[in-house]
Amino acid sequence: MDCSLVRTLVRRYCAGEENWVDSRTIYVGHREPPPGADAYIPQRYPDNRIVSSKYTFWNFIPKNLFEQFRRIANFYFLIIFLVQLIIDTPTSPVTSGLPLFFVITVTAIKQGYEDWLRHKADNAMNQCSVHFIQHGKLVRKQSRKLRVGDIVMVKEDETFPCDLVFLSSSRGDGTCHVTTASLDGESSHKTHYAVQDTKGFHTEEDIDGLHATIECEQPQPDLYKFVGRINVYNDLNDPVVRPLGSENLLLRGATLKNTEKIFGVAIYTGMETKMALNYQSKSQKRSAVEKSMNVFLIVYLCILISKALINTVLKYVWQSEPFRDEPWYNQKTESERQRNLFLRAFTDFLAFMVLFNYIIPVSMYVTVEMQKFFGSYFITWDEEMFDEDTGEGPVVNTSDLNEELGQVEYVFTDKTGTLTENNMEFKECCIEGHVYVPHAVCNGQVLPDASGIDMIDSSPGVSGREREELFFRAICLCHTIQVKDDDEVDGPRKSPDSGKSCVYISSSPDEVALVEGVQRLGFTFLRLKNNYMEILNRDNAIERFELLEILSFDSVRRRMSVIVKSATGEIYLFCKGADSSIFPQVIEGRVDQIRARVEHSAVEGLRTLCVAYKRLIQEEYEGVRKLLQAAKMALQDREKKLAEAYEQIEKDLILLGATAVEDRLQEKAADTIEALQKAGIKVWVLTGDKMETAAATCYACKLFRRNTQLLELTTKKIEEQSLHDVLFELSKTVLRCSGGLTRDNFSGLSADVHDYGLIIDGAALSLIMKPQEDGSSSNYREVFLEICRNCSAVLCCRMAPLQKAQVHAPCPLSLASDWGIVKLIKLSKEHPITLAIGDGANDVSMILEAHVGVGVVGKEGRQAARNSDYAIPKFKHLKKMLLVHGHLYYVRISELVQYFFYKNVCFIFPQFLYQFFCGFSQQTLYDTAYLTLYNISFTSLPILLYSLVEQHVGIDTLRRDPSLYRDVTKNALLRWRVFIYWTFLGVFDALVFFFGAYFMFENTTVTSNGQIFGNWTFGTLVFTVMVFTVTLKLALDTHYWTWMNHFVLWGSLLFYVAFSLLWGGVVWPFLSYQRMYYVFIQMLSSGPAWLAIVLLITVSLLPDVLKKVLCQQLWPSATERAQNTCVRWQDHLPELTPLASLQSLHPSAAWPGSHSEQVTSLCWESKEHEAPAHGARLSLSRRHPSWKPCFGGPPSGDG
Amino acid sequence: IDYTGTDPSSPCSKCLSPDVTPCVCTINFTLEQSFEGNVFMYYGLSNFYQNHRRYVKSRDDSQLNGDPSALLNPSKECEPYRSNEDKPIAPCGAIANSMFNDTLELFLIGNESYPTLIPLKKKGIAWWTDKNVKFRNPPGGEPLEELFKGTTKPVNWVKPVYRLDSESDNNGFINEDFIVWMRTAALPTFRKLYRLIERKNDLHPTLPAGRYYLNITYNYPVHSFDGRKRMILSTISWMGGKNPFLGIAYIAVGSISFLLGVVLLVINHKYRNSSNTADITI
Questions:
Q1: Which residues cross the membrane (chain B) (predicted)?
Q2: One domain, residues B229 and B263
Q3: What is the pLDDT of residues A69-126, one digit of tens each?
Q4: Which of B52, B189, B236 sits opposite A918 (nearest CB)?
Q5: DSSP per residue over B229-244, as a string?
Q6: What residues pair up with A610 in beta bridges, in sequence order?
């Protein structure tokens, strides 16, 4: 957002001083206004060219290089490369230049290709033809030549070429339908309205005669906000001023539907369209793994520098005796002698740096990138996460966060649409305290009279009946539903029966449910036509109401109203909204009864809405109209003024009744939540619903269980006591038992007897968050956090979701929001990883704020999914996403990172040691080719494959046993202890390689013909042992073997041997030296070399094997236990104990079938060609070998 | 057998001073056991950093491969041993320049009064591939002297490269002593194969037990850098020379593995019991 602000500023400055205004004036059809109006200021706007590409043909290379070298790692390697070019270094520039060049080229090709695609798309977009009006004629022009002020004609099913103000349409009522599927994914048709004064212009000539100016705000990216004003000049009268809102604006990218053609005037073009402004990328999220990786890199950089420093110092100490510095057999050149000492020392330092620079490998970045890239594809391909109902699978928007899914400690979930299906069903209504329940068996028929209604209370009197009908009418009228007819031209004389076929479309499923429910009670909403709403009442008569105003819904007011005029001329205001927002405005009606009923419904988990009305007399309405008109006309602060106006209008209401709508839980939502809680993840439900409703839902989805002790922190309670007392009392309760809790946690498997659930409502939360003068707020906040940390589940109800526009602005603290909560937890002391999941636009702020944002592709549009890092079709998929994918990817990437450091320690440490034996002369131990290819080809593929397909525990086990997730949270596998272990393992191995080779070479002959090996053979021996050790170490760590693992692992060893044979077997004419000639072959011809290789590999692998076996046997973690369990099954040892233990762990897990069946299905070996008939899951496995429900062999201790 | 001569009692100590040229010294030694099979005679140097970077790269492989252009215009890497008196040095570089040039002769002092010279074979000490592929004299049928025309000998050499040996297939760049020297050692203490003593027939040991003396033409100065020179006689099995390291290491690793195996077995046994109980209690 900041970025766009800066851009706007820059643009304004560039455009010149006169553009420095908050609004722009557009001259429709480029006609100057008549004299007397504002001075005509020709403004310059960009043309309609869309440029989404980053590079042009000319600037690609410099710009791309610049972009790439902005990455620290690339820059580091560039520096190393330059140092190698400039000074005399031990290794040739090729060794670091080639990998760098490779990496840069691959990235550049990838980016170039993507950019080329963008160019193609841009061109297609810019060159598609557009009809627009010039001098009363229709002209076709390329889209990119469109200018602000042009009048454009768009036909049905065409997309709008730029942001237009809707002037007129072919439909008589001046409306058109639009889908914004490509903008925000909402496929429902939205109605837009033409400007009142221009909707009569239907032909090109008419429109060309239009003389008007439009004033509107400067472009801004909010899709749903537009403020403007149109001045229509007539020859006779004063200019007519009309407000313009977002309902008059047609956005670029949207598609015209159900309307033959429309005319509009271009106001924002090209890069200033709202769509283009929304292109900007979201802020990059970085995973915890990446952070620790960077820390480790810094550690290694320090190691590198200190190594170089030590060697430089030692070199000069050692050289202080002249016969060592320059013995007679090895003299310096003149120029070398003349260089001054300091410069020499510095060059030496740099040379050592270059020598050891491989400790930070180029290829690690590439491998990590590739792992993430392919990994995200693997998630996308997961067929178990494919939802058949919607035909959609998971979508990965950010591949950088795969491993973060394995680190989640807090899940913030939206209730509606995420936990629940958002598939509303009208359950009951309460009118004046009488409860009506639509017939359960009612099959959508229009039921005559009250026979379709179960009267729970006594039947109403005549006035009650009147009220009842008013109530139904209110529900029928107070909404923003559109009717999607199959046949539009049928006209008003549509038969009542065909009314059933019509489909209601609305952005809010509650409304649809209500209208459909009322339809069953006898009132059918037919259509909205020419500002008249038509209802079919119980007597099959059509009632027409003129729609005067809509006071649209917003999440702050939490209610909406319509003002209608009935056929008899009475003006009503119907208001519908959440009980909390209606009750204060009510002056009449059986408030208490209805309130009781509402609360009763809420406890049952139903969503309640209250309906109220007010009769307006004509004068009142005039006042209202003026008020609204004034507010709508405002250019600045229109939102605020509108809200104020609404507030004034919606008061002194008469309560009619309440409705209750059921929102069913999504399938397996309870199962998922339970699993998440078992996995040690704290689940917070954030909802705008009533506390009782939300609590009921939470019980239903097992967020709270029977033994959960509920702590309430609600407004009611705070009213009784002071906030201070409540907070401290709660924290005392929690902390008293937390001792017991931790003890239970220690065993890791406790059933969490003391399980706390916290319920907090928005008002209380805002009290806690509110900064206070005496600074005690931070204290409150900490106490609150303390409580929250000890609760396994938190329910926040009555949350006012932060309004979209406020997302980017610093949020006022008094407004407690999802965003605020997420931020609160995120910034708390332990910096836990948070995940937010939601489906609606109101969850976007939360999704963007959390470490990982997951969007559910739901009914409320795709906005959440678009802004999320991951989008999944259903809430239940979160379980697999976290417990399986997250866990596996975390394990994989941590192993990847650690392994990379390990293998480079192995690689470089012998070099370091060798310096002590070669007079600190920076002599390399290995040949240049080996130096270059070690990280690129000899050891890169196995770890990449490992990091893609490794399953240290099988998928089924992971899913069945969520507590395994606890083993990896808090970055467990990348802690310092583990890191140091790996580093020391690397150092140990390096010592073994080097001194093994050293003792073998010292004072002895190793060939059978007495000939002597030189230094290159020494290096090659060390290198060979190293390549084998490092690869076999990976093989030891691999639990899950596929044929690909075997292929790549043994293949890369084979490749090493083949390469060495070839490299040493030929005199390469392009090399200036032939130092490797026959070295490898000679080495292999020597018996002791073979013996030494075998010995050294064994010795260097021994401690790791030992550690593994010991840890597994003595202090097994839950993960290892799970591994063991499976291993035992695999061995067909049907022992009772492991099974019993597992069953006792998971009483909920059912174990169908006999034991042997489980063995075969669980531990199905990776021989897919042998087992073709294993059902659907296995067919999946065949497609993606990584998803095989099978385990590899255990690490075999050879002790 | 160390013959550096730092010890004043050593017969070679007189050679430490540069004045005595040529310096010939003789060292007596006794073989307690007779050497069966082929015997390999090595010279060993210590504290000689053949693996110094400046040293290692100071050679021109294409010159050594007989490339005529590189012969007259050696690589820059050879500096400061690239040219002498405006003539290119062949073979150039520090390695070649510092070639080992002591001559060792071995005499058996038998029962007879006069010692017998042990015949030393000087071919077959270098890698076959080095001698036949990697190192080549400049092409042409003319005598070597002609081929090396326009070049000069390395500064420290006494004879030019084409006079290294009398035999034509062991002269010039393909002189095996030279090739052996050119394969730089990995460590500052190293040995290089000097001569072979071939077994003549099965009846007599190659070197019978007895007293020998080593006749050294002492040219190579090592005293300046605190170096040592040795002569080593060694027999070799199919597994190469005597290598205590491998044996000891194998025994050590083997016994450690065995020990660990036992320990782990015990642990495993215990663990099973404990884990079972643990599983039940949970």
A1: 245-267
A2: no
A3: 777 777 888 888 888 888 776 677 777 777 788 778 877 887 788 778 778 877 877 7
A4: B52
A5: EEEEEEE-BTTBS--H
A6: A577, A658
Give the pairing type, strands A524-529 and A532-536.
antiparallel
Average pLDDT over residues A1077-1097: 81
The partner residue sitting opposite B186, judged by closest CB among A1001, A1073, A1141, is A1001
The DSSP H or E segment spanning A853 is strand A852-856
**Model ipTM value:** 0.90
* CA dihedral over A454, A457, A462, A468, signed as positive or negative: negative
B57 shares its domain with B180 = yes
Q: What is the spatial distance between Cα A194 and Cα A200, in angstroms, rounded to a whole number?
A: 9
Residue A18: predicted pLDDT: 40
Of B60, B236, B253, the CB nearest to A1008: B236
Q: Alpha-carbon distance A955 to B2, whole Å?
A: 68
Same domain, B158 and B269: no
Question: What DSSP string describes A517-581?
Answer: HHHHTT-EEEEEETTEEEEE-TTS-EEEEEEEEEEEEETTTTEEEEEEE-TTS-EEEEEEE-HHH
Dihedral in degrees, nearest 10, Cα atoms A683, A684, A690, A693: 0
Write out the residue range of the structural domain in which residue B264 sits.
247-277
3-state secondary structure of A1073: coil
Tell me, yes or no, whether B96 and B184 share the same domain.
Answer: yes
Give the per-residue SS3 of A887-954: HHHHHHHHHHHHHHHHHHHHHHHHHHHHHCCCCCCCCCCCCHHHHHHHHHHHCHHHHHHHHHHCCCCC
A331 with B75: Cβ contact below 8 A: no
Contact A1077 B240 (CB under 8 A): no
**Contacting residues of B for A1003, CB less than 8 Å apart:** 44, 189, 191
Strands A653-665 and A586-588: parallel
Task: Give yes or no for a contact between B205 and B35, defined as CB atoms under 8 angstroms apart.
Answer: yes
Q: Which of A414, A510, A839, A869 is catalytic?
A: A414
Sign of CA dihedral A25, A26, A32, A37: negative
Does B6 reside within a domain? no
Residues A673 and A702: beta-carbon distance below 8 Å: yes
User: How far apart, in whole angstroms, are the C-alpha atoms of residue A908 and residue A924?
Assistant: 10
Q: Exposed, middle or buried: residue A978 (CB in 10 Å: 0-12, 13-18, 19+)?
A: middle
| One-letter amino acid of A957 | T
Alpha-carbon dihedral sign for residues A1037, A1042, A1047, A1048: negative
B173/B262 same-domain check: no
Residue B109: inside a domain: yes
Residue A279 tokens read as 């292109």
Residue A886 CA: distances (Å) to CA of A10, A372, A378: 42, 12, 12
What count of other Cβ atoms lies within 10 Å of the Cβ of residue A201? 19
Average pLDDT of the segment spanning A930-942? 83
Q: How far apart are CA A1078 and CA A112, in angstroms?
A: 43
Query: Considering its fold, how many domains does chain B have in total?
Result: 2
Residue B2, token pair as written in the block: 């160390």
How far is it, in rounded angstroms, from Cα A260 to Cα A168? Answer: 11
Q: Is the pTM of this model over 0.80?
A: no
Q: Chain B contacts of A999, Cβ < 8 Å?
A: 245, 249
Task: Give the model's confidence band at A6: pLDDT under 50 very low, under 70 low, under 90 confident, else very high.
Answer: very low
C-alpha A578/C-alpha A556 separation (Å) is 11
CB atoms within 10 A of CB A70: 9
- Asked if residue A1150 has pLDDT above 50, the reply is no
Shared domain for B143 and B256, answered yes or no, is: no
Chain B residues close to A1087, C-beta within 8 Å: 238-240
Give mean pLDDT, residues A215-238. 72
Burial class of A14 by CB neighbour count within 10 A (0 to 12, 13 to 18, 19+): exposed
On the question of pLDDT at A430 being above 60, the answer is: yes
